[in-house]
Amino acid sequence: MKRRTFIAGAATAGSLAAVGSVAYAATADPDVTASNAGHVQSATAITKVFGEGQKLIAVAVEYDQDIDTSTLSTSTFAVTDRTVTKVYANRTAALAERGRDGRYVIVELSPDDTAAALWGIGSGGSPTGTPSAPAATASPSPSSSGGSGGAPGGGGPQVGDTTPGGTIQAAKATLTQKGTVTTTRGARYPAIDTTLATGSVVNPIVDDFQQFTFDDPATGQSLKYNLFVPKNHDPGNSYPLVLFMHDSTVVNVATQGPLVQGLGAVCWASPEDQARHESFVLAPEYGSVVIDDDYEPSTLFDATVNLVRSLTKKYPIDPKRLYATGQSMGAMMTLGMNIKHPDLFAASFVVAGQWPQEQTAPLADKKLWVVVAQDDDKAYPGENAIMQVIEDAGTKVATAVWDGQSTAAQFAADVRHLKAQKAPVNYASFQAGTVVPAGSNVSGHLATWRIAYTIPGIRDWIMSQSL
Fold it and tell me: 89 in helix, strand or coil?
């Protein structure tokens, strides 16, 4: 498993003594010996991306011998400001359904802890647990190509999307071995009062993306992007490509921002999705707002299309199976690209977006799955107007109202019901009041994509389409 440090933080402040690759906070207790601490070889933070963004969900502590998993419990370790939910041994620094004897002890943590959040946004929709000390901070960046770059609409059809301002918190934790750890050979490693700090981080799925820069000769734009290449792809075959375009809160954050802000990119690259639909996944990171409520895109809009075409020539990508998806600003870009380039994408997944009704007639010939929240006071009426144009053109639109608090099984049934209508355009709206978690101040607009990208049946439908 690859380990990257773009989200990894420095060791905790204070007087530190290095033991192997792990930092231990200095202690005044003379009874704590170096031999006790020396059994620990490393400590690695493990993250996971959820609908609301990336979180730190576990720490893998590596020992010098295989550990007997049956001797471990949630009281064996304590993690600062975190709730320990499960402790077990494993052979790698990775989560497992069941523990097995190995050199690593996995300390799982509650994703509901305030300190779990590694991604946060600023005004208009800060999730509970927004990091207070970000490793990277977005700042508005004026577009060098005119259009809407840097405009305060946030690139989305809802005030809750606001000005660019997402932050990525360093993935780090400090913990203490509170109980005895026993090896498979019977050796007992007693509790250690010193504090152990993580020195590296594993970001499953996120680490599988590569980072590049596309210098577009046509627009003069330089566009940073993340690309997932199927691990065992055959150059003799051809594969689909999914283009994910982020919302404005990710503007100018970091190249990997689109991968950690939510599931819009990484869900397509998950082992489960790749097992069903092996594909390339492309996630550009925009340095400025591409489009907002004036609907005048900057040249980054055309640069994105040119990037897709360039990758289609460079890799074994099937030009008849290109798919677009995006949220808010990215959803607007998805709609705009389908209008301007009607022969480019085989299907598109549009999440919380809108476009001027009078320009949307070309969408009647496209295959779309649209999701929006009814309490999104701009995107919802905007999508209703688009659906009316599509229906007036004679294209069938399958519609449904979904409960945003449905279980995975219920969403799967909802998807089957819409698919059964065999329409080229599927339109699902979340019932008002069902997408915002209780006690959260996030807007219904931003809350939409926290749910939409958790529904695999929609992705399956998108992947089944072709030109």
Answer: strand
* 354-366 residue pLDDT tens: 999 999 999 999 9
CA dihedral 130, 134, 136, 140 (to 10 degrees): 60
Q: Distances in Å between the alpha carbon of 291 and those of 147, 159, 301, 335, 394?
A: 7, 14, 8, 12, 30
Estimate the crossing angle of helix 456-463 against helix 408-419, to 10 degrees: 30
Copy the structure tokens of residue 280. Answer: 């390339």
Would you say 104 and 93 are in contact if contact means Cβ atoms under 8 Å apart?
yes
- Interval 399-435: pLDDT, tens: 999 999 999 999 999 999 999 999 999 999 999 999 9
Taking only the tens place, the pLDDT of each residue in 330-350 is 999 999 999 999 999 999 999
**Verdict on whether the full-model pTM lies above 0.90:** no
Cα 303 from Cα 317, distance rounded (Å): 19
- Integer angstrom CA distances of residue 19 from 13, 24, 64, 155: 16, 7, 12, 48
Q: Which residues pair with 317 in a beta bridge?
A: 239
